[in-house]
Amino acid sequence: MFNAQIFTLYPDFFPGFLSKGLYGKAMSENKWKLKIVNIRDYALDKHKTVDDTPYGGGSGMLIRPDVIAKAIDNNIEDGEKIIFLSPKGKLFDQKKARELSKEKKINLLCGHFEGIDQRVVESRNIEEMSVGDYILSGGETAAMIVIDSILRLLPGVLGNNSSVIEETFENGLLEYPQYTKPQIWEDKEVPEVLLSGDHAKIKDWRLSQSEVITRDRRPDLWRKYKKD
Predict the structure, then answer these.
(1) pLDDT for 51-90, tens place per residue?
(2) Pair 173, 144 in one domain
(3) What share of the chain in percent tops pLDDT 70?
(4) Does residue 146 lie in a domain region?
(5) Is 217 found in the same domain as 126?
(6) What global pTM score does this model have?
(7) Are residues 63 and 125 in the same domain?
(8) What is the pLDDT confidence band of residue 169, given thresholds at 50, 70 and 90?
(9) CA separation, residue 147 to residues 138, 159, 174, 195, 206 (Å)
(10) Backbone angles phi, psi at 75, to 5 degrees
(11) Which domain covers residue 124, as residue numbers?
(12) Which helix (H) or strand (E) segment is 188 a member of?
């Protein structure tokens, strides 16, 4: 069973869609489990204070290291992977999703305000990870992205496991165009090769389309694909 544990200041954000559809079914079949830890439950005063001003000045507030450490120490065993969702972390990608899907348990720490005290990151061996070069209001949305990406890679979660292999990023390329019925729609026809029944030609066409799209839209991925 894959276990996900999320540390958050806003537990009501979860579980949402994670408890429904394919993921809800997989959860009921004990393929994965989700636990939410409310960081405020580990505050050290009656006001449930979790943040304070940064030393050295600056705008915003930081989550206190003593509060985060208490939450971690009461919910995580030695050796478990801890990930802080942070814009200055290493970029999360499909390769990382596959890597994390092989873990028995992951712990995701959702940041807020200006982040968390660096000392707790270092003392608890926390890995920093970013879901992209943009700013979110909190780590909860990022946590959903990470969990969603991982769960669909778990055996038996998706109805058609072969679809995972063919998707965007799985072979380093963006996905090729897809078509379905009707064959002619608004005077636009499905590419003839897809109607040919020749699987070798279809495979070649799809690869060539993926290469063109990747080269035009994501030159960074294209360079990496050509290098590999």
Answers:
(1) 999 999 988 899 999 999 999 999 999 999 999 999 999 9
(2) no
(3) 96
(4) yes
(5) no
(6) 0.86
(7) yes
(8) confident
(9) 15, 18, 21, 37, 29
(10) -135, -10
(11) 2-151
(12) strand 188-189
